[in-house]
Amino acid sequence: MDARLVGAVEAKTHFSALLDEVAQGGEVLICRRGAPVARLVPAGRAEGAQVVEAIAALRKQREGLRLGVNWRELRDAGRW
């Protein structure tokens, strides 16, 4: 989902409306002079939770994958 871009002054003026938007699942990116400084997301969608979910998904994807060679052989291949 794309975040709605809002300037800092507009965010201050319409904060209550932005909170209502976020409560309905939206995301708001607050900018100051065109540079992002903050993101409003629903409380259940905190970035920490997303990172944990992403790591778990990568680990599950990785299960059963093998190089087909011993890692020590790869490590030592360039040694004399």
- The DSSP helix count reads 4
β-strand percent reads 15-25%
User: Which whole number gives the mean pLDDT?
Assistant: 86
Q: Main β-sheet, in a few words? A: 3 strands, mixed
Report the top-level CATH class.
Alpha Beta
- Which fold name fills CATH's third level, the topology? YefM-like fold
Shape: elongated
Low-confidence stretches: none
* Extended strand count: 3
Work out the count of structural domains: 1
Q: State the fourth-level CATH superfamily.
A: YefM-like domain
CATH architecture: 3-Layer(aba) Sandwich
Secondary-structure element order, N to C: EHHEEHH
Helix coverage percent = 40-55%
Whole-Å distance between the termini?
53 Å
Mind telling me the C-alpha Rg? 22 Å
